[in-house]
Amino acid sequence: MEWKKTNNVQQFSENVILLYFKELSSKYKSSTLWAQYSMLKSTLNIKHDMNISNYQVLLEDFSRFLNCAPDEKYLLVKAVAVIGFAGACRRDELRRITVDDVQDLNSAMLVKIKNPNNNVYRSCALTGQFYDIFKKYASLRPKDIYETRFFLNYQNGKCTRQVVGINKIGNMAKQIATFLRLPDAEQYTGHCFRRSSPTVGRDLISFQFAY
């Protein structure tokens, strides 16, 4: 597999598969991703005796949620999830993101994420569908609000003036799993975003963060 050689990946794992599909998602539509997944599943099953259908968290599940869940109800969850996934964020890091941490570059959204334990920032860029979702939510924030926390509660297609708390963010992974009808949805926690975001090595440029 050429991608494996290029990125100096020594073995297949759930995180490696997630990273591979994360890179593909910036280039292809969900229908193409599904076709790629089907081919990869067959190849790994035949050549490596691996059944990746047993993985609980794969990118096509996430893509299905982004594409199928109605924005009127789930736009906030989507916006939190895309930055949580792309930035490998803890729920407290998501809660602390401010409007000053978000920069719209027109084709990408640059988001600074502060580690509350050491006050060190890292950055990640949202592109493609992730950018579109995040920008749509950002455009709905009230213009005359003085609250600097970026994430505000969202109801019936509109943002309110109340900030999103840490417990609500922690419940979002379960909301995604419930919508997708995944087994044991109650066991999905706010830590799932961080565990699901793959970090295979610093040589993988697409997942290096600027500190």
TrEMBL record:
| Biological processes per GO annotation | DNA integration; DNA recombination
A Gene Ontology molecular-function term? DNA binding
The answer to keyword Disulfide bond applying to this record is no
Which UniProt keywords are present, listed alphabetically? DNA recombination
InterPro entries in alphabetical order: DNA_brk_join_enz, Integrase-like_cat_sf
Name the record gives this protein: Tyr recombinase domain-containing protein
From what organism does this protein derive?
A: Exocentrus adspersus
